[in-house]
Design brief:
With 530 residues, the protein is an alpha/beta fold. The strands form four sheets. Strands 1-2-3-4-5-6-7-8 form an eight-stranded parallel barrel, surrounded by nine helices. A five-stranded mixed beta barrel has the order 16-19-17-18-20. 46% of the residues are buried. Bound molecules: sulfopyruvate and magnesium ion.
């Protein structure tokens, strides 16, 4: 149903309905969630929320822009407090057309002069509009609506300005005859007596709306009994907000801490919920390319012995290549590939490893254990989409991307085919050699580490692998098996990979140079040349 139609039904049906004040999109949504069938976009509270007065200090187009957010935020209709219509009949015509476009259900205009003053300030001095001029404004408004259900309510300020009941009735009748869909009769008295007198004399000629801000003690049953159509609770969300914001600000200022406040304020997730984040998350799933999450585990527990004393105070992962520690470079490479959660396993000189953005797991037994033991300590971090690397490798950044591009759901190793047949550690034999030509066909690991003689090797694993959705469980399985047969403490990563390979298909991605495993000073110099 159109919002105009919903508002028209609400105003014209015999039952009493309630509109609740809101002053922005967020409060409008809160109003709707509380179960109100419509929102009162109050001129007073809209102005106040901007820190300006209810004297048309906001321009009419600022009001329209603002109320558009409220209409966007809600599925129930918004009734705008349109003050005097922001000018003469001509301004009124433009207002109605613009409000229809931003999906506002209707507008109330009051018979005062522009710029108006709030009804509860210096009330008796408030000049009223000439009746005929205001009648013309109502007709102009009604004639400009293109949606027949758009609601125009005429607000009578005669009681506010102290002109008495007869004048109020005279005006209400004129506005009704001019085509107003309902009459809003306002009062500044704390007793509802003059409002009731008006209602009794009016006799239901047209629907009536009330704003019982001052006569708030009146039982709602009394409004209902007199056939009132709409009661507007006109400013209470803004006022509730003021009280709460003042108390919160004072508390934080006095305490210089959030401790006493945090339990009493809406949690952030409630803010996100009210903003509609769930819808965006859903839309992201539909419209954004799926991007697998990526994390990393870096093994940096080893001391590094071939550095002539350079690693006495810091582990080799902290040796600098072109001014940046090897580990920091690696984390930058991973970060730029999208890795968010990075765990570094420390051992030798753990305290010297403090790269930003990483979590740390410490291998206290680093002197008597190997890589597999370190990885076992970080087992919880082995989630689907994890890069596992030695902390002493320097890479050209494209290597990480090349691995990710071809990574499978299991485990995928980056293997340097330029080291085929070389007598290097971590030798790899695949189901076929690197042809140097691009192929879509998956290359499978056939054997790794000591299982492979140098002459049979197709390359060397560079100390970098990717763990996919299935691979995390495979690695854990291999770790558990090595732990069970007592070999985990001394095992190398290639030993774990050999176990995985025996049970599951492990993928190989060929790379051709562009990396250095820094094991001695010569490697350090080579790394700088990369
Ligand atoms: C408003 O909420 O801005 C109103 C009602 O117009 S009152 O403040 O009572 O005038
Ligand atoms: Mg107002």
């Amino acid at each position: 149903m159109r919002k105009t139609t919903a508002l028209r039904q609400l105003v014209t049906r015999p039952s009493l309905d309630f509109l609740m004040e809101a002053h922005n999109g967020l409060s409008a949504r809160i109003v709707e969630e509380a179960g109100f069938p419509g929102v009162w976009a109050s001129g007073l509270t809209l102005s106040a929320s901007f820190g300006v007065r209810d004297n048309n200090e906001l321009s009419w187009s600022q009001v329209v822009d603002h109320v558009a957010f409220m209409a966007d935020a809600t599925s129930v209709p918004v009734l705008l407090d349109g003050d005097t219509g922001y000018g003469n009949f001509n301004n009124m015509r433009r207002l109605v057309r613009k409000l229809e476009r931003v999906d506002v259900g209707g507008v109330v205009i009051e018979d005062k002069l522009f710029p108006k003053t709030n009804s509860f300030i210096r009330s008796e001095r408030q000049p009223l509009a000439d009746v005929d001029e205001f009648v013309g404004k109502i007709k102009a408004g009604k004639d400009s609506q293109t949606d027949p259900d758009f609601v125009l309510i005429a607000r009578v300020e005669a009681l506010i300005a102290g002109w008495g009941l007869a004048e109020a009735l005279r005006r209400a009748e004129a506005y009704h005859l001019a085509g107003a869909d309902a009459i809003l009769i306002h009062s500044r008295q704390s007793s509802p007596a003059e409002i009731f007198a008006f209602l009794d004399a009016w006799g239901g000629r047209a629907p009536v709306a009330l704003v019982p801000t001052k006569y708030w003690r009146t039982p709602t049953a009394d409004f209902r009994a007199r056939g009132v159509s709409v009661v507007i609770w006109a400013n209470h969300l803004l006022r509730a907000g003021i009280t709460s914001m003042q108390a919160t600000a004072k508390r934080i200022a006095a305490d210089e801490s959030l401790l006493n406040v945090e339990p009493h304020v809406a949690p952030l997730h409630e803010v996100f919920r009210l903003q509609g984040d769930a819808e965006l998350e859903d839309a992201e799933r539909r419209y954004l390319p799926a991007r697998a999450s990526l994390s990393a585990v870096v093994l940096a527990a080893g001391a590094g012995n071939d550095f002539g004393g350079l690693t006495e105070r810091a582990p080799k992962a902290m040796l600098k290549v072109q001014g940046t520690p090897i580990l920091a470079r690696l984390l930058e490479d991973f970060g730029s590939a999208g890795a968010r959660d990075v765990v570094v396993v420390r051992g030798h000189r753990a305290e010297a490893i403090d790269v930003p953005g990483a979590r740390f797991v410490d291998n206290a037994d680093f002197a008597t254990t190997g890589e597999a033991w370190s990885l076992g300590l970080a087992e919880d971090a082995l989630v689907p989409g994890t890069l596992v690397a030695f902390g002493d490798i320097v890479l050209k950044r494209y290597i990480v991307q090349a691995l990710l591009d071809d990574a499978g759901p299991g485990i995928t190793l980056a293997v340097d085919s330029t080291l085929a047949s070389a007598d290097v550690p971590d030798r790899v034999r695949a189901d076929r050699a690197d042809t140097g030509r691009f192929s879509f066909d998956e290359v499978r690991l056939a054997a790794i580490g000591d299982e492979v003689t140098p002459s049979a090797s197709h390359g060397a694993w560079i100390g970098l692998l990717h763990v996919g959705a299935d691979g995390a469980a495979w690695l854990r399985e291999a770790t558990a098996a090595a732990r069970a047969d007592g070999t985990l403490r001394s095992a190398r990563l290639v030993d774990l990979l050999a176990r995985v390979r025996a049970a599951h298909p492990v993928r190989v991605v060929w790379i051709r140079g562009g990396w250095v495993n820094v094991n001695n000073l010569t490697d350090l110099v080579d790394a700088s040349d990369l």
